[in-house]
Amino acid sequence: MNEKRKHRTISPDDVVIRPLKDSDSLEEVTDLLHRGYKRLADMGLHYLATYQDVPTTRRRISHGDCFVAVYHGKIIGTLTYFPPDVIGGSPWLKRDDVADMGQFAVDPDFQGNGIGGRMIAFMETYARNLGCAELSLDTAETAEHLIRWYEKLGYRFIEYVKWDITNYRSVVMSKTLTAASDAARR
Questions:
Q1: What are the CA-CA distances from residue 82 to residues 7, 25, 93 (Å)?
Q2: Which helix (H) or strand (E) covers residue 131, if one does?
Q3: Which residues of 37-55 are buried (b: 16+ CB within 10 A; e: fewer)?
Q4: Which of 60, 118, 137, 177 makes a 20 to 30 Å CA pair with 154?
C-alpha cells in the first residue's frame, strides 16, 4: 500500500537559519541527511548523504560553512556552503568565482513548507556577500523532480560529472548571483 506521508504545516518564518554550532549534534545532522535523502536511496541512487557516518559528516562540513534550519529547538534542515575550488571535479567547479552548496536536506516531515527554498535563498545571499558570481550544486541526472525544482529556483544546466563515490552521473547546475555577471551573460 502506498501511503502519502503527512507533512507538518508550519510557517517558514518560524524557522531560524543559523550556522551550525559546536554544541549541535552531528549525529542529529547525519540522521537528518539519511532521512532527507531516503527517497533518493529508494530510487537506487547512492548519494554519499544516504549512508555517510558521523565522521564523514564532520569531514565534509569542515571544508565549508554548514548552516541549519531550526524549528522550536529542533534541527529540521541542513545545507553546507563550499568556497570556490573546494569541490573541484569538473571545469565549472574549479572556477574561482563559483561556490558550491551541498549536503542539503529538509526533514521529510517538514517538506512542502518553503523551508528548502528559504535555505537556498539564504545560501545565495551568503555566497553573493562573499563575492561569488555563481552558486552551483549537483544532483543525479535521474532525480528529475530535484532538477525541475532547482530550475524553478533559477538554476541552469552546466555539465555532467561522474563522482567516484556515486552510482550515477550528476548534473551540475548553477545560478548567477551578481548583477555584473547577469550583464556579462547578455
A1: 30, 21, 10
A2: none
A3: bebbeeeebbbbbbebeee
A4: 60
pLDDT of residue 2: 40
Which CATH number covers residue 27? 3.40.630.30
| Mean pLDDT, range 78-85, rounded to an integer | 93
> Higher-confidence residue: 47 or 2?
47
β-pair type (156-161, 134-140):
unpaired
Nearest Cα to Cα of residue 124 among 48, 57, 181: 181
Place of cell 503527512: 6
pLDDT higher at 182 or 136: 136
Domain membership of residue 24 as a residue range: 14-137
Q: Could you tell me the pTM of the whole model?
A: 0.88
Q: What is the DSSP letter of 73?
A: T
